[in-house]
Write a structure and sequence with these properties.
180 residues, mainly alpha, 53% helix, DNA damage, hydrolase, DNA repair, four-way junction helicase activity
């Protein structure tokens, strides 16, 4: 017996033809069909579930988003309210990107899904909090960096320096991070 399982291009790239694979399968039952969607990573499946809660985002559009953006990129784009990044996938226009950014900001945090730095503990959220970090992101944006890049740099710096870092230290380290 065989099953047709739809997956993102990211998941399909990681599969080996003829090899064994363990997939997380999401089943969606509609009046006219039962559809299966497969994922190799829990984070990707969780984002699929979250994305499909937004009006105008069905399973196909959610897979398109996951094919274009990694779960970390989605989280950073939502946290930074970066509508340009969210509108990159096929099927996502400016209005839907704006809806994704506004509706998912709270849902992503509620699900405990936030961008995680490479090598960091999975429970450590990277989303900058507090006015110092917000001001640092604003300063980097004013210096010409994209908001999502500035947000990511400040998030990584904040995790490295700790919450007690000063504004000047965060901006300096953020500039060094962006220069890499």
């Amino acid at each position: 017996m065989g099953y047709l399982v739809s997956a993102s291009s990211r998941t399909l790239r990681d599969l080996v033809a003829g090899g064994d694979a363990t997939m997380l399968v999401e089943t969606i039952v509609r009046e006219d069909a039962i559809a299966l969607y497969g994922f190799l990573e829990t984070a990707e499946r969780d984002w699929f579930r979250i994305l499909t809660t937004v009006q105008g985002v069905g399973a196909r559009v959610a897979l398109s988003i996951l094919s274009t953006l990694s779960p970390d990129e989605i989280a950073r784009a939502i946290a930074a309210q970066d509508r340009a990044t969210l509108s990159r996938p096929a099927g996502v226009g400016p209005k839907l990107a704006a809806r994704l950014a506004t509706e998912l900001k709270d849902k992503a945090a509620a699900f405990g899904i936030a961008p995680v730095a490479k090598g960091a503990a999975a429970s450590a959220a990277v989303a900058p909090t507090g006015s110092i970090n917000e001001d640092a992101v604003s300063a980097l944006v004013n210096l010409g960096y994209k908001r999502v890049e500035a947000f990511g740099a400040v998030a990584r710096v904040t995790q490295r320096l700790g919450d007690g870092a000063t504004f000047d230290a965060v901006v300096r380290a953020g500039l060094q991070e962006l220069a890499r």
